[in-house]
Amino acid sequence: MGKHVVAGAGQVGSQVARLLAEQGHEVVLVSRSGSGPDLPGVRKVAADAADRERMAHLTRGADTLYNCVNPSYHRWARDWPPLAGSLLAAAETTGAGYVILGNLYVYAAPDRPMREDDPLTPPSAKGAVRVRMWREALAAHAAGRVRVTEVRGSDYFGPGCRDQSHLGDRFVPQLLGGRPVRYLGDPDLPHSWTYVPDVARALVAAAADDRSWGRAWHIPTGEPMTARQIADRLCALAGVPNPGVKVMPHWLVRTAGAFSPMLGELEELRYQFVRPFVLDSTAFQQTFGLAPTPTDEALTATVAWWRAA
């Protein structure tokens, strides 16, 4: 069994730490607050991931460093460069493999299912930040200074996904409570939704297989579904009437964005919800032999988590 360092104790980082601990590994879970699950084998550390010396110290002797950090949307341009630089430097200094949790912002607005070899020409400032991070890490890999891979998923859902998920606070509890959902985009367009436990499994699988290094991969993700289809299936599995999904007018979203940093930052990503937004995860599934969790199973677990919460 080895040592693994997970930077970020949010919805993904905590599940990565849990999965690694269940496999018998030593896990160091790093966050500003020192939060995360209380599990045997998991040592929670309060530290700033942008502190290069501290991260290099914590990563010493580790097999893998996982970048599961997620700064607030409105702080990406300011927070990501020092964070990414620190984590890349820690991996280089210690020899740990570096696994980055990425997303689909790096691609152009799609007109077909997105693949890993699509051009990195994002239409948003946030996408440009992610592209710079990946290119810097990939250049270090090409120079032989580090082993790096990036694992990208679409919008997350599942246990633990709350305010930063389109299928979180504004979706699942509304339906379970008999209230219609106010959706920020077109609820009748196909969209890829990535189940968070599958994200954790993909990160851990990539770290354990040398075939992952030097390129990006798409997390195993189920067939695309519209928001209305998700609502229909979720309510059927929960055994409750479906109160429906209504469209939140664009003018209202823009107005609300003046008071909510999160909603304000979604404006430049609107293209993802007014056209089909679908990823192709064939390469990862065929290479590593992992399939996405069946949708009904994932939605059932999501409903159970919300009811317990």
Q: Report strand order across the widest sheet.
A: 3-2-1-4-5-6-10
Residues in helices, as a percent range: 25-40%
**Discrete helix count:** 11
Percentage of residues in DSSP E strands: 15-25%
Main β-sheet description = 7 strands, parallel
Structural class: alpha/beta
Mean of all residue-level pLDDT scores: 94
Radius of gyration: 19 Å
Question: SSE order, as H and E?
Answer: EHEEHEHEHEEHEEHEHEHHHH
Counting copies of identical and different chains, the oligomeric state is single chain
According to DSSP, the number of beta strands is 11
Q: Unreliable stretches, pLDDT < 50, 5 or more residues?
A: none
Q: What would the principal axes of the Cα set say about the shape?
A: globular
Measured between the Cα atoms of the first and last residue, the distance is 33 Å
What features would you describe in this structure?
- The chain is α/β, with parallel strands linked by helices and 309 residues long.
- Helix content is 38%, strand content 16%.
- It has helices at 13-22, 52-59, 76-94, 125-142, 172-176, 196-207, 227-238, 250-257, 261-265, 282-288, 295-308; strands at 3-7, 26-31, 42-46, 64-67, 97-103, 148-153, 155-157, 181-183, 193-195, 216-218, 245-247.
- The strands form three sheets. A seven-stranded parallel β-sheet has the order 3-2-1-4-5-6-10, sandwiched between helices. The chain has a two-stranded parallel ribbon with strand order 7-9.
- Helix 1 (13-22) links the parallel strand 1 (3-7) and strand 2.
- Helix 3 (76-94) packs parallel to helix 4 (125-142).
- The protein starts with a strand and ends with a helix.
- The model has no long low-confidence stretch (mean pLDDT 94).
